[in-house]
Write a structure and sequence with these properties.
Helix content: 55-70%
CATH topology of the largest domain: Rna Polymerase Sigma Factor, Chain: A
Order of helices and strands: HHHHHHHHHH
Number of domains: 2
Mean pLDDT: 82
Largest sheet: none
Length: 182
């Protein structure tokens, strides 16, 4: 029995080739990017939007527009970080449009958990979702995603000082809302 030579073995595309292939709309390359990054991106979108349905829509929009967005990708820094910034922009755009139309999810209004059947984690998650979109975005990006205030400022189109002020307000509101977790 002979083993295949190294030359005959298929190698996964190098990241720069993968990006070029995805930029060209190659379905296999887009599938690979999705497989590698979707979990982190949907988690980020959920934290920003506070809704599973909205997070899924954000992820769909990110990957639908990915070949076009990749035309602007300069291949500096981490590709995953760039994808997260794209996801943040798409999520914020969605949140702004919903604020204009004041959308309310039927499921959330019907199934609001009672105080007795929630865990501390659920209380914290609900409190974060209850923050205004501007405060929630800064809180999630700084405290959960660990972006600097300068990076947040660039993503949101605000100053680093405004980012710090929004974070302070978000933390104050969360402390007031949650009190002491028991």
């Amino acid at each position: 029995m002979t083993l295949p030579s190294v030359v005959d073995m298929p190698f996964p595309p190098r990241p720069d080739n993968l990006i070029a292939q995805a930029r060209d709309g190659d379905p296999d390359a887009l599938t690979r990017v999705y497989t590698e990054h979707a979990r982190a991106l949907i988690a980020l979108a959920f934290r920003l939007t506070g809704s599973r349905a909205d997070a899924e829509d954000v992820l769909h929009d990110v990957f639908l527009g990915l070949p076009e967005a990749l035309a602007h990708y300069e291949e500096r820094g981490s590709f995953g970080s760039w994808l997260k910034r794209v996801t943040v922009r798409v999520a914020l755009t969605r949140m702004r449009s919903q604020t204009r139309f004041r959308e309310v999810e039927l499921e959330e209004s019907i199934t609001a958990p009672t105080r007795h059947d929630t865990t501390d984690l659920e209380r914290v998650q609900r409190a974060i979702r209850a923050l205004s979109p501007a405060l929630r975005a800064v809180f999630v990006l700084r405290e959960i995603e660990d972006y600097s205030h300068a990076e947040i400022a660039a993503m949101l189109g605000i100053s680093a000082r405004a980012s710090a002020v929004r974070l302070h307000r978000a933390i104050r509101i969360l402390r007031e809302t949650l009190g002491e977790l028991r």
